[in-house]
């Protein structure tokens, strides 16, 4: 079973990487960028065959390792 | 208008970050992880109001800066 975890910074948390992207895009001549924020996407290939079991396991992975839940939030999509 | 760019490594490209995640998850006791691959997600807040113009501009941003098209592929989703 495949799952995709999308991890993004919580609103209000400063995103220096995003600021760097904004600056670089502007200097490259892209004037229409109001804001850029960068996050992570982790694609997991799981042995689980049951969707709810897979979602629950991935949730525990996020809490234990993949996301810093103080400043990040995560979204789990079970793909197949 | 908001857009989300998801940048992932092309198949076959070695992903040391993904390997590190696999190892860490296994050492934390998650045995059901066959593979993990990490990518980036960039959320853009654009001044553009037309969807096709926004998609075309973001495509140019990806080619110019956001993605290393030698080893990465990108997917553009126009959210609103």
Automatic annotation (TrEMBL), chains A, B:
Top EC class of this enzyme: ligase
Q: Which UniProt keywords apply?
A: ATP-binding, Cytoplasm, Ligase, Nucleotide-binding, Purine biosynthesis
Q: Where in the cell is it found?
A: Cytoplasm
Q: Does the keyword Cytoplasm apply?
A: yes
Its EC number is 6.3.5.3
CC annotations in GO: cytoplasm
Q: Taxonomically, which superkingdom?
A: Bacteria
Which chemical reaction does it catalyze? N(2)-formyl-N(1)-(5-phospho-beta-D-ribosyl)glycinamide + L-glutamine + ATP + H2O = 2-formamido-N(1)-(5-O-phospho-beta-D-ribosyl)acetamidine + L-glutamate + ADP + phosphate + H(+)
Q: Subunit notes for this chain?
A: Part of the FGAM synthase complex composed of 1 PurL, 1 PurQ and 2 PurS subunits.
Q: Which NCBIfam families match?
A: phosphoribosylformylglycinamidine synthase subunit PurS, PRK05974.1
This chain belongs to which protein, by name?
A: Phosphoribosylformylglycinamidine synthase subunit PurS
The species this protein belongs to is Acuticoccus sediminis
